[in-house]
Each structure stands twice: as structure tokens, then as C-alpha cells.
Design a protein that fits this description.
- By secondary structure, the chain is of the alpha/beta class.
- It has a domain of 134 residues: Rossmann fold (3-Layer(aba) Sandwich), CATH 3.40.50.
- The protein has seven helices and five strands; from the N terminus they run H-H-H-E-H-E-H-E-H-E-E-H.
- The protein has a three-stranded parallel beta sheet with strand order 1-2-3.
- Helix 2 runs antiparallel to helix 6 and helix 3 crosses helix 6.
């Protein structure tokens, strides 16, 4: 690989050697397939659980279901070393600020899996005064897994859906590589008499004055 355009290659080597430069590889999307293959097979989930769904997540990580087949067996205790956040269980209003803070600390590219009915939409506690009806109201979710709680097989199916999404991504299209459009951290909700999203402050102030 070189930036020079005038290098002579002996005839006996032409079938084994390809000379190009990094810009041409990226522009032609030739790096996407091997790059995504490496990413899809080395996703590190964060060691994080909320409720009963976390028990099924732990079972999935045990030897019977063998998450190592997906390269996901290395659960990290730190968000700064994680690629995937599995929101497994009931999301209470008291927990939302911590989840958003952990999400912001994860490096790009990062993914979120909403595991179970509670994380996806509130589940049986949806009308509860202290429960959030879906974590996607505060952080972007890539894969939703139904169930209460989902089985380990369902979680593995969710992992495969996430791998399919990774396979379709391109270095040329994703925002994480765009220097001119940096990704900003999400605002951390504030827990007061109720949970408040800083993005709604203008609307709350307008209604209060009215």
C-alpha cells in the first residue's frame, strides 16, 4: 500500500501484489467488509443489569449458550471499554440519569439493546409513577427484544440482528468518522419531583409561564 503512482511491479508479482492507497480503499468501500467483520465478532457488552432480564442475560453468558461464538463473551466493567449496552430490566426514573451518563462514556461506535418488555416500553409497570415507558425516550436503541423476560435464545437472536446491522454500515456514511459533524453527548436527565429531560426545558418554561 502506497501513495506513489509510478511504482513498477515486476510481471511475476502482478498476480500477487496490489498497490493502492488508503484514500482509494475508503472511497471505494473496500474496507467496509473486513472492518465490519472484525467489529461484529468482537463486541464487548457492558456488565450492567437492572432487573429479572439480567438473570437471563447472565444465563446467556454462561457456558450452555456460549456467547463466545459471537465474540461477545468479554463483559467489561467499564463503559469506556464497551461497545454494547444491554438495558436488561425495568428502567426507573431514578436510574435513567445513570444510564444516559454511562451511554455518554462509551466510545463510538456503540450500540444499545433494549432487552425485554420493560426496557422497550415499560412492560407491566408502564403506568407506574416511577417507571420510564421505554429507554428509547432518552438514548437511541438499535435492537428491541420482546419477552418478559426474553429467553437466552431470544437474546442471542438479538445479537445476530445487531451483527446484521453492523454488516450494513459503511465508513463513508457513519457519523462517527465525520470530523465535520462531531457527535455530542446526550443531555443527562434531571431527577426532581419527576424526571426532566433538559431538551424539554424550553417547552416546560413556556407552559409554566402560560
Amino acid at each position: 500500500m502506497t501513495d506513489e503512482k509510478t511504482i513498477e511491479v515486476p510481471d511475476e508479482m502482478r498476480a500477487q501484489v496490489a498497490l493502492t492507497n488508503m484514500a482509494d480503499l475508503v472511497k471505494g468501500n473496500l474496507l467496509d467488509k473486513p472492518y465490519n467483520w472484525g467489529r461484529r465478532n468482537s463486541i464487548w457488552p457492558m456488565m450492567f443489569g437492572l432487573a429479572c432480564c439480567a438473570i437471563e442475560m447472565i444465563a446467556t453468558a454462561a457456558s450452555r449458550y456460549d456467547m463466545a461464538r459471537f465474540g461477545m463473551e468479554v463483559m467489561r466493567p467499564s463503559p469506556r471499554q464497551s461497545d454494547m449496552l444491554i438495558v436488561s430490566g425495568t428502567v426507573t426514573k431514578k436510574m435513567v440519569p445513570q444510564i444516559v451518563r454511562l451511554y455518554n462514556q462509551m466510545p463510538e461506535p456503540k450500540y444499545v439493546v433494549a432487552m425485554g418488555a420493560c426496557a422497550s416500553g415499560g412492560g407491566p409497570f408502564k403506568e407506574g409513577y416511577n417507571v420510564v415507558a421505554g429507554i428509547d425516550k432518552y438514548i437511541p436503541v438499535d435492537v428491541y427484544i420482546s419477552g418478559c423476560p426474553p429467553t437466552p435464545q431470544a437474546l442471542l437472536n438479538g445479537f445476530m440482528k445487531l451483527q446484521e446491522k453492523i454488516d450494513s454500515q459503511s465508513i463513508n456514511r457513519e457519523r462517527w468518522y465525520d470530523k465535520e459533524d462531531p457527535i455530542e453527548a446526550l443531555p443527562v436527565p434531571v431527577l426532581g419531583p419527576d424526571i426532566m429531560d433538559p431538551r424539554d426545558y424550553a417547552m416546560i418554561t413556556k407552559q409554566a409561564k402560560a
